[in-house]
């Protein structure tokens, strides 16, 4: 009788899911991206793929306050525990509005406690060895939640609670070093803060950053944020400069940053903040990771910590991509091989630039990063997209459903394919062939900027930019009083050469529902057609055409990235001067896509940007609402009019109120 090899023991993979977490819903909208259907579609996908019978399936238990208190303040815990109770019914929405991107309802408390409890439970089972690995399909997500604040759809920081529980409460399990990998497209600001001085936790986050202009905004996601005290070197941020990064970009980071540091750190366990909003087609993320890309990233992480991996769901808002990507990760944990195309993919040139910056910053703490990258990686470059929509807008323009124009078609700029042996040697990745070098790209960009810096125009503002400190945010970068997110600024930081005021025969009005910059409430628009019965106050800034381009892209939630061509060029300037308005096809989804010429001043054209005539009809029909502004936005409008010596405070308030109470 022939000897037969014993069959390999299948891995013990845990899955935890509880439909009670679907009780957390937005009371004001059926279209919020953080919807209960996120976890339902994942569960349905796993069921249809025959995954459930191959895993250890569990239901969630609510976390205990004493465990949540390992990372959160008592005041915050008390709020989340009680906010769904009847006594909060009349003020729950008001409480939610005080936080950044948070909704609350009668099911929020239970869902938050179940999510945290689920992540604790499966993490403990993996640490005990009862499971080889696990996936917690939970919501609300957690990585943005800070010790005393909910934000970014997150109530409790599920991953941080579980990691601290293992380290502090269960030392006998032998988990003394934990690697947290956060591949959500947004920076895990909450998790970073909770472990910033703790050398027991190596926190790694790869995310869109864009100089602090992408949510959650600010400098916390910079590669220079490396930890402090004993935790110095144990905080690693890989901040993308733009959207549309895909498989190849992430593979390059895994090979040249994460893998060598993980090997040196030698963690006892890996916890993944599994956000899937960097997946192809996600409406908030704008990146292009395929399900295969997530499978490769997961497989690489399984090489460490003896494969003890626990993944907790964070973001991910394209339901199809989300379900397929989570399925790919679970299949990888089950040691299935994921099908792959055999075409090549290449990282962006900016990816190598970021990788080099990260390695240089961290090399004093991790000598494995001190070596030079192979020269052949930089032979040619794949240029970044010319412009991109950013989901954390620094402008007034932000649509009501937080929509993002990311789609599979857009991601074709960096279409994803992979070489079949990518796992064996990720370092073989090269950058895309292109007829133009980086120097030529920069030169082309510098060429139009050099020319446009010598062309002056008047930019006429009727909204928050009437207040000079707010307008200067578009030039110098940063944020003014009342704003909830910073601006990227112009490449030309010079202040306006001259400022003046003018009254024009156009209707000023305030509409739309909410913006990320100003919160709930409308923002200012100008009817693009003149009306002798209307008067609007305009603050005119003499700036360069280069600066006008940079204001235009920021007002429309766009941002130039190594832009070879301007959005508004000299032929557009000539056209709008003759025809009075110009609707840009590139900006068609923006709220301020219509450049209008209001005449001339000192032989220079007066340009403003507002909505299209089509939008005017939607405002008239009520499909787009006229709406009162937020207090912060209204205060800025009043400051602009009063400090500009155009109106008294009482007159300014009356002028603003007329903008949303009088029908178009």
TrEMBL record:
Its cofactor is Zn(2+). GO terms for cellular component: cytoplasm; histone deacetylase complex. The keyword Transmembrane does not apply. It is found in: Nucleus. It catalyses: N(6)-acetyl-L-lysyl-[histone] + H2O = L-lysyl-[histone] + acetate. Pfam families: Hist_deacetyl. InterPro entries: HDACs, His_deacetylse_dom, His_deacetylse_dom_sf, Ureohydrolase_dom_sf. This is histone deacetylase. It comes from Papaver somniferum.
């Amino acid at each position: 009788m022939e000897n037969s090899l014993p069959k390999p023991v299948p891995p013990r993979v845990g899955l935890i899911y509880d439909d009670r977490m679907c009780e957390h819903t937005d009371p004001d909208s059926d279209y919020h991206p953080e919807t209960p259907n996120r976890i339902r579609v994942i569960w349905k996908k796993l069921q249809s793929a025959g995954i459930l019978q191959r895993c250890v399936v569990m239901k969630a238990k609510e976390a205990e306050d004493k465990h949540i208190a390992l990372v959160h303040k008592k005041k915050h815990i008390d709020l989340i525990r009680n906010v769904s109770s009847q006594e909060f019914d009349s003020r729950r929405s008001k409480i939610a509005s005080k936080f950044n991107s948070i909704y609350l309802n009668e099911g929020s408390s239970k869902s938050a406690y179940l999510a945290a409890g689920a992540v604790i439970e499966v993490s403990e089972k993996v640490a005990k060895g009862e499971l080889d690995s696990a996936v917690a399909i939970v919501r609300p997500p957690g990585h943005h939640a800070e010790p005393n604040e909910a934000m970014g759809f997150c109530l409790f920081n599920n991953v941080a609670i579980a990691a601290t529980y293992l380290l502090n409460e269960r030392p006998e399990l032998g988990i003394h070093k934990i690697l947290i990998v956060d591949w959500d497209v947004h920076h895990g600001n909450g998790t970073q803060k909770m472990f910033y001085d703790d050398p027991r936790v190596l926190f790694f986050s790869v995310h869109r950053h864009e100089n602090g202009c992408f949510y959650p905004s600010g400098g916390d996601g910079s590669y220079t944020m490396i930890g402090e005290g004993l935790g110095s070197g144990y905080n690693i941020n890989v901040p993308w400069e733009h959207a549309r990064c895909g498989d190849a970009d992430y593979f390059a980071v895994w090979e040249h940053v994460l893998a060598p540091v993980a090997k040196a750190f030698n963690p006892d366990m890996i916890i993944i903040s599994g956000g899937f909003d960097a997946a192809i087609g996600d409406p908030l993320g704008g990146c292009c990771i395929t399900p295969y890309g997530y499978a490769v990233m997961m497989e690489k992480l399984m090489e460490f910590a003896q494969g003890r991996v626990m993944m907790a769901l964070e973001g991910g808002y394209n339901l199809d991509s989300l379900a397929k990507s989570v399925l790919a990760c679970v299949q990888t944990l089950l040691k299935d091989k994921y099908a792959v195309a055999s075409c090549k993919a290449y990282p962006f040139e900016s990816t190598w630039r970021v990788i080099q910056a990260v390695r240089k910053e961290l090399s004093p703490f991790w000598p494995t990063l001190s070596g030079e990258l192979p020269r052949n990686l930089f032979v040619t470059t794949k240029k970044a997209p010319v412009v991109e929509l950013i989901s954390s807008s620094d402008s007034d323009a932000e649509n009501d459903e937080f929509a993002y124009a990311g789609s599979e078609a857009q991601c074709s700029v960096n279409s994803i394919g992979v070489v079949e042996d990518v796992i064996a040697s990720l370092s073989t990745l090269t950058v895309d062939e292109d007829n133009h070098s980086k120097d030529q790209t920069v030169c082309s960009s510098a060429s139009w900027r050099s020319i446009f810096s010598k062309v002056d125009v008047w930019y006429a503002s009727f909204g928050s930019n009437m207040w000079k400190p707010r307008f200067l945010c578009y030039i110098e970068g940063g944020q003014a009083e009342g704003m909830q997110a910073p601006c990227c600024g112009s490449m030309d930081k010079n202040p306006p050469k001259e400022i003046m005021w003018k009254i024009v025969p156009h209707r000023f009005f305030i509409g739309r529902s909410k913006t990320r910059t100003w919160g709930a409430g409308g923002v200012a628009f100008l009817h693009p057609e003149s009306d002798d019965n209307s008067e609007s106050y305009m603050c005119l800034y003499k700036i360069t055409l280069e600066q006008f381009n940079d204001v235009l892209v920021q007002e429309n939630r766009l941002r130039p990235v190594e832009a070879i061509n301007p959005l508004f060029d000299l032929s557009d300037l000539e056209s709008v001067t003759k025809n009075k308005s110009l609707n840009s096809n590139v900006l068609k989804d923006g709220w301020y896509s219509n450049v209008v010429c209001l005449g001339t001043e000192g032989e220079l054209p007066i340009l403003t940007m507002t909505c299209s005539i089509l939008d005017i009809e939607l405002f008239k029909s009520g499909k787009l609402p006229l709406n009162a502004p937020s207090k912060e936005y209204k205060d800025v409008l009043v400051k602009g009019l009063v400090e500009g010596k155009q109106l008294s405070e009482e007159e300014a308030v009356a002028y603003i109120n007329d903008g949303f109470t009088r029908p178009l």
